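step=predict obj=Peptide methionine sulfoxide reductase MsrA n=243
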Amino acid sequence: MPVPAFSATPSRLLAPFAAVCLLTVLTSCVQAAPPVSAKSDDPNANPNYNGLPLDSEIVEVKTRPGEKVATLAGGCFWCTEAVFERMEGVNDVVSGYIGGKVKRPNYDQVCGKMTGHAEAVQIYYDPTKTNFEELLKVFFKTHDPTTLNRQGADGGPQYRSSIFVHNEEQREIAKKTIEKLGEEYRDPIVTLIEPATKFYVAEEFHQDYFRRNPNAGYCRAVVANKVRKFNREFGDKIKESAK
């Protein structure tokens, strides 16, 4: 059943005003959080993390023959989904919840910040056209990996920056990517590397949200900016159908 508009988070409901009052919103909504040491070499040293143990069991995901899957959380899944749906080599993107402690969570529960889930996307891709490392490059360029449990005005553990790995190869690539990119940011990267546990597909209302609601306030004020950044930074990776 579609989720009614009034169940959206306050930051999304206020999105039409965000473009005008963005500086005020970002200043007033900053969430108090314990500091992350700039000297830490552990990308999982996130004091606000309240999900499953980082050694939780990985759940196998079924894919089509010749297809692979990546699971990424970079804030609002409307944004992340919109970006990767445009990328060459990506067959499908599904929005959902992962990394929490409650079975079959719904949107309101996740937004309540008590289940430990992150808003995330599962990306099904063709490894002959792209790879996990390329997906991570897009991921890091299209969100802020240095803000703890926050992307812009969206705050809470459900908006954490996280890479949910499906195997040891992905874990190693994620670690090396974070180490490599660490020198490019003024603040330390707080992106988590978590096991890809059970992924719960979000309500139909959230699937393909930007494509179906391009004129919604949040889409115009926030999602569209992410898409434009992808277009600028990765023009050579845009699907022909998305140009």
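step=describe
Residues 1-8, 13-41 have pLDDT under 50 and may be disordered.
step=end
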